C-alpha cells in the first residue's frame, strides 16, 4: 500500500491510498464498473485538464469568498484547496476559496464517492453534482405552461464545515454528513419567485434570493427541508470532519431515489420531491468540489485563521464514480486496459453460498478486480481435482452464480470448492475453500 503524508503545522498525518471504499454489494447478476470519466486518484502533480477545470464556469462564488484558480493545487497525492485572504478586495469578495468542476455534464445514474478532509474554518468542503438550466416542458406545478420557464437539478452528497458555526444546527456540519436534493425552477411570471409554501409541508418550496424556487429534500436544514431520512449520518466515536479523511457517497439509483453512504455505511435515503416533475432526476449532471462561505455559517473566517496552514486547507484524496451494469455488459467509460487500470478494487473473490440441485452445484460468489480477469472454479476431493470450470470476468465488483456438474449427486459428497482469479498464468487471488457435504437420508 502506498502511503500519503501531510504536514499539518507540527503534526504529521499519514493516510493509505487504497483505503477500503466501494459501492454496496451488487445484486446477483449485476456489476459495478468504474466510470473513469469522473474518477481521479489525484496522484499527478497538476490537475488533469482532460477531466477538470479549476473554476466554476457559471459562478464566481458566494461573497465574501470567491473561487480562485491558484488556490487549487495537487501535491503529495492530494487535491488541495487552500483558503486564504485575498491580497486585493474584489467588490464584495475578501476571501479566496476554490472550485474544481468536471468538464463534462454526463454523470448519470450510478455511485459517486469522494474521500476528503475538511478545513477547520467556517468554509465548506463539498462534493456535489449539478446541471444547467434548460427549458421546462409542459405544465408546471401551478398548471401553467410558458416558453420562459426553466429548471435545473442539484445533488449535494456532502457539505462539511470544520469550524464552529454560530447557529443551532452548526454542529451537524462538523460531526457528520449533510446531504440534499434540489430541483430548481425559474417560473413563467416574476411573481412565481415570491411563492413560499410552508417548509414543513410535503410539498415544500423554498425561495432562493428572490429569483428561483427550489423543491428540496435532505438533512441539511440550512438549505434543504431538514427532514433527513432513516440512517446514520454521524461520524463514529465523536469525530469531526476536519480531524481525518472520510468517504462520502451517494447511489443515484433512478429518477426518484438516492441513497447516501458515510464511510461505506448507509446514512440515509431520499425520495426526491416530485412537486415540479414526476421523475425529476432525469438528466445527467456534472461533478463539483468547492470550498465556499455561507451566509448561515458565521462568523466568517478571521485573517489569522486564513493564514494558518494547519487549518485553512481542504484535502481531497480521490473521487470515484461507478456505473451499475449487468455482469457481462461493457461501459464505454470503463477501462479495459490492464496497463492503465487504476488501483481501486481489492483483488478478491468470496463464495457466498453453494446449493446442490441433483448432480449440479450452484456457486454464488462476488469478486473484485481492476482488470478483466479469468476465473477457475475448482472441485477437489482427497487432494485430487474432480473438475474445473473456466470463466472470463469483466473488471469491477460483480456478483455471479455459476454451476458445476459431476456425473452423480453422490460424487459431490465431501468435495472442496474454491474459486481462483488469474491474469494469464499468474494467480491474483483465491477464495476460502468451501467444504460441501451431501445430505443422505
Automatic annotation (TrEMBL):
Gene3D superfamilies given in the database record: 2.60.120.200
The keyword Cell division is annotated on this UniProt entry: no
Gene Ontology BP, a term: carbohydrate metabolic process
Signal peptide span: 1-21
Residues in GH16 domain copies: 17-327
Keywords per UniProt: Signal
A single GO molecular function term of this UniProt record: hydrolase activity, hydrolyzing O-glycosyl compounds
Protein family according to the UniProt entry: Belongs to the glycosyl hydrolase 16 family.
Protein name: GH16 domain-containing protein
Organism: Agaribacter marinus
Amino acid at each position: 500500500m502506498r502511503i500519503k503524508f501531510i504536514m499539518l503545522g507540527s503534526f504529521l498525518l499519514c493516510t493509505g491510498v487504497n483505503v477500503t471504499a466501494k459501492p454496496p454489494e451488487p445484486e446477483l447478476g449485476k456489476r459495478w464498473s468504474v466510470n473513469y470519466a469522473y474518477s481521479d486518484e489525484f496522484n499527478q502533480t497538476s490537475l488533469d485538464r482532460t477531466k477538470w477545470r479549476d473554476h466554476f464556469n457559471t459562478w464566481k462564488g458566494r461573497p465574501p469568498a470567491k473561487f480562485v484558480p491558484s488556490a487549487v493545487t495537487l501535491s503529495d497525492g492530494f487535491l488541495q484547496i487552500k483558503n486564504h485572504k485575498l491580497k486585493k478586495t474584489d467588490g464584495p469578495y475578501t476571501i479566496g476559496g476554490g472550485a474544481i468542476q468536471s468538464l463534462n455534464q454526463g454523470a448519470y445514474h450510478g455511485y459517486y464517492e469522494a474521500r476528503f478532509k475538511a478545513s477547520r474554518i467556517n468554509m465548506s468542503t463539498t462534493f456535489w453534482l449539478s446541471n444547467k438550466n434548460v427549458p421546462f416542458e409542459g405544465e408546471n406545478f401551478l398548471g401553467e405552461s410558458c416558453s420562459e420557464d426553466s429548471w435545473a437539478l442539484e445533488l449535494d452528497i456532502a457539505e462539511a464545515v470544520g469550524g464552529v458555526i454560530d447557529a443551532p444546527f452548526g454542529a451537524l456540519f462538523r460531526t457528520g454528513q449533510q446531504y440534499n436534493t434540489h430541483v430548481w425552477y425559474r417560473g413563467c411570471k416574476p411573481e412565481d419567485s415570491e411563492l413560499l409554501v410552508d417548509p414543513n409541508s410535503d410539498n415544500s418550496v423554498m425561495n432562493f434570493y428572490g429569483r428561483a424556487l427550489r423543491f428540496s429534500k435532505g438533512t441539511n436544514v440550512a438549505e434543504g427541508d431538514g427532514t433527513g431520512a432513516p440512517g446514520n449520518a454521524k461520524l463514529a466515536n465523536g469525530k469531526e470532519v476536519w480531524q481525518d479523511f472520510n468517504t462520502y457517497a451517494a447511489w443515484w439509483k433512478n429518477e426518484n431515489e438516492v441513497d447516501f453512504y458515510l464511510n461505506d455505511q448507509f446514512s440515509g435515503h431520499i425520495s426526491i420531491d416530485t412537486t415540479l416533475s414526476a421523475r425529476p432526476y432525469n438528466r445527467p449532471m456534472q461533478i463539483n468540489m468547492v470550498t465556499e462561505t455561507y451566509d448561515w455559517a458565521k462568523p466568517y473566517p478571521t485573517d489569522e485563521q486564513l493564514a494558518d496552514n494547519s487549518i485553512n486547507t481542504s484535502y481531497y484524496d480521490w473521487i470515484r464514480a461507478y456505473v451499475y451494469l449487468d455482469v457481462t455488459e461493457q461501459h464505454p467509460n470503463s477501462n479495459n486496459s490492464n496497463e492503465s487500470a487504476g488501483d481501486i478494487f481489492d483483488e478478491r473473490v468470496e463464495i457466498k453460498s453453494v446449493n446442490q440441485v441433483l448432480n449440479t452445484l450452484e456457486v454464488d460468489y462476488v469478486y473484485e478486480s481492476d482488470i478483466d480477469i479469468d476465473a477457475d472454479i475448482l472441485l477437489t476431493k482427497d487432494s485430487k481435482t474432480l473438475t474445473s470450470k473456466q470463466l472470463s470476468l469483466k473488471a469491477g465488483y460483480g456478483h455471479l452464480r455459476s454451476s458445476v456438474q459431476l456425473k452423480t449427486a453422490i460424487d459431490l459428497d465431501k468435495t472442496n470448492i474454491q474459486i481462483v482469479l488469474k491474469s494469464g498464468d499468474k494467480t491474483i487471488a483465491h477464495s476460502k475453500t468451501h467444504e460441501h457435504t451431501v445430505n443422505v437420508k
